[in-house]
């Protein structure tokens, strides 16, 4: 549920995406795969996933992405109206460069990174920070609205989260290894 709440919250923070081009970094992750699907549900004209490994591109396309790019690619295709960035760090500059004029980048990673003011000014671009814990504590009504929307989308079959694997609680170290190695496709689940 938490991954879905983050994906939905990040899309809300970005503003309307209907008819727009959206790029999702970490598109094969637990949050990223839901952000790809939700951007499509919300009417994005084009949804592109960015991944670290070319082996993940087929999975990301199966989620409804129109295309997939790799972090190390020189260009990430057409300029995007919106970038949902779960990576940060060294990827923040290329994510910002991928934005069209007046584009919005929603940063929701803990990877850090620096944005130069000139890079924002030259294209009238915006960077929006998003933190779910802040929403849950300070705007519980919004958190609850997102929760209801997710359950509705799941119940009617519109949203189907991808689960990479289910691990018994005693295999938590293996689950952590999959996440740390960035080999997971979708959400990693621990079963007590």
Write out key terms for the chains shown.
23% strand; 192 residues; alpha/beta
The N- and C-terminal alpha carbons lie at a distance of 17 Å
Q: What would you call the quaternary organization? A: single chain
Largest sheet: 6 strands, parallel
**Structural class estimated from helices and strands:** alpha/beta
Please, how many helices?
A: 8
Give the beta-strand count. 8
Instruction: Indicate the overall shape.
Output: globular
Which range best describes the helical content: under 10%, 10-25%, 25-40%, 40-55%, 55-70% or over 70%?
Answer: 25-40%
Q: What amount of the residues lies in strands?
A: 15-25%
Low-confidence stretches: none
CA-based gyration radius: 16 Å
SSE topology string: HEHEHEEHEHEHHEHE
Topology:
Blueprint: H1 2-14, E1 21-25, H2 30-41, E2 46-51, H3 57-62, E3 67-70, E4 80-85, H4 92-97, E5 99-107, H5 117-121, E6 126-129, H6 132-138, H7 140-155, E7 163-168, H8 172-180, E8 187-191
Parallel strand pairs: 1-2, 1-4, 2-3, 4-5, 5-6, 7-8
Helix pairs in contact: 1-2, 1-7
Q: Would you kindly provide a written description of the structure presented here, covering whatever features stand out?
A:
The chain has 192 residues and is of the alpha/beta class. The chain is built from eight helices and eight strands. A six-stranded parallel beta sheet has the order 3-2-1-4-5-6. Strands 7-8 form a two-stranded parallel ribbon. It is globular, with a radius of gyration of 16 Å. The model has no long low-confidence stretch (mean pLDDT 91).
